[in-house]
Each structure stands twice: as structure tokens, then as C-alpha cells.
């Protein structure tokens, strides 16, 4: 049994249209659109809400004495980290072991630094974060314009 060529053409067109509809639906859903109503606020807002709830949990509620002791402990840890900064976190050799005037690359946002010869530039270009603390290098790149959701009114052009 062979299929009628006209029917086969209609099935192919229907399959292509169905795939296009699925792709557009996924793109619209992923973009989040221009609405900020509660129904569309999932994703990063949900993560943000979870962070807020964690910050307001029982683990962060303590006496002043406990908070002061915790702060003191963190200051000790920070002093230890500063001592560890005498070594490059990439190659683990101490700064100044080689020649005087050794070049280092300083990450502007956090102040961590690395031997320039360790080629940390490749990491910074690719990941845009400090290899040690994962802090950003600066403001994130502007997001690509998203597709508006169908229920959102169109925005007037800005001049």
C-alpha cells in the first residue's frame, strides 16, 4: 500500500507547523515576557523567595552573644584566607618566588589576584567570574530581548 502523494504533502506540512508551534511556545514560556504578575513570576523569583525564607529561618535567629561569637569566628577564617592569598590559587606557588616585579591579574570586583603567567585571562573571558570566590567581574551583560507573552500588552517604542 502506498500513500497518496497529496496526503503525504499535507502530513509533512502539518508536522512542520506543529514543530514551529512547539518551538514558539517554548520560547515564549522561557522568555517570561514583559508581565510581572504573580502567575508569571516563577523561575528566578521562586529561587529568590526560597533565599528569603532561608534567611528568615530558625538557623539565623540567635542571641546576641551567639551572633558575636559567630562573627569573631568568621573574622578568624577571613584572616586565614588572607594568609592563603600569599599563594596563587591556580598554580599554588607563592607570589614573589620568581623575579621581582612579578605581574599579577587582579579581579576588580573582589580583589583576588593570580599570576598573569597562569593565564587566568582565559578563565575570566569564558566564565566571567573569579576562580576563587565565583564573584562576578562587573555588571552582567544585557539580556537579549525576550518574546512577549501573548497575554501581555505590547510596549510602545522608546524614543
Automatic annotation (TrEMBL):
Name the InterPro entries on file. Answer: ATL71-like (IPR045899), Znf_RING (IPR001841), Znf_RING/FYVE/PHD (IPR013083)
| Sorted UniProt keywords | Coiled coil, Membrane, Metal-binding, Transmembrane, Transmembrane helix, Zinc, Zinc-finger
An example of a Pfam family matching this protein is zf-RING_2
PROSITE patterns, per the entry: ZF_RING_2
Chain segments annotated as coiled-coil in the UniProt record: 62-89
What residue ranges are annotated as transmembrane?
7-28
Q: Drop me one GO molecular function for this one.
A: zinc ion binding
- Keyword Transmembrane on this protein? yes
Q: Which SMART domains match?
A: RING (SM00184)
Which residue intervals define the domain RING-type in the entry?
88-134
> What is the protein's name according to its record?
RING-type domain-containing protein
